[in-house]
Design a protein that fits this description.
mainly alpha, Tetracycline Repressor, domain 2
């Protein structure tokens, strides 16, 4: 019975996320209300609030869901700590490049700012988890820079580079812009960890 319940929850989450994504492609994010998401997904209000606090919570869960499939394959098991910390960057650049003709301009600058602020928060959390795990596994003592500050710095720099790249029309390939991001962050990580 538990498996059937899990599948129903997954299906409900997929319906709600899909509805939010389709609405984002039609109108600015900050103009979307929960009722529109519910109507599009054909999901009841009580069901929505059982799983999510608000549309921002739904959006954050979608960002986590977007990262989940690539996290295990993109995160290098060995190698340098900074490569393990920055595993997310290329897959997100590739995701944006592959979807560049879908919602794009219809989201608008304010909608993109809201979406990318949520992305920054999620990335800071994901980076913190990666750093904590690598610190537990390492023999070196923790760094002198507070972990939460380092995570915010990396996530904010990533979103800055992502926005710049989008504003410039994605003229570089995902691999090229990922290298730009890496070059901006690598000296800080080297100073902190090497």
């Amino acid at each position: 019975m538990k498996g059937a319940e899990d599948r129903r929850i997954q299906k409900t989450h997929q319906l709600l996320r899909g509805s939010l994504v389709s609405l984002i492609s039609e109108k600015p994010y900050d103009c979307i209300v929960v009722k529109e998401i519910l109507d599009r997904a054909n999901v009841g209000r009580s069901t929505f609030y059982t799983h999510f606090r608000d549309k921002d919570d739904l959006l954050v869960s979608g960002i986590h869901e977007m990262l989940r499939p690539v996290q295990s394959t993109a995160q290098p098991a060995g190698g340098k700590r900074r490569d393990r910390i920055l595993w997310f960057s290329l897959p997100i650049f590739e995701y944006h490049y592959q979807h560049r003709h879908t919602a794009g301009d219809r989201i608008g600058p304010r909608g993109r700012a809201i979406l990318h602020d949520h992305l920054r928060r999620v990335l800071a959390e994901v980076i913190a988890n990666t750093i904590k795990k690598s610190t537990r596994d390492a023999r070196k003592p923790t760094c002198a820079v507070p972990v939460d500050l380092l995570c915010e710095y990396i996530a904010s720099t990533f979103v800055l580079v992502l926005n710049w790249w989008l504003d410039k029309g994605m003229t570089q390939s995902p691999a090229e812009i990922d290298l730009v991001f890496y070059k901006l962050i690598a000296p800080t990580l080297a100073a902190v960890y090497d």
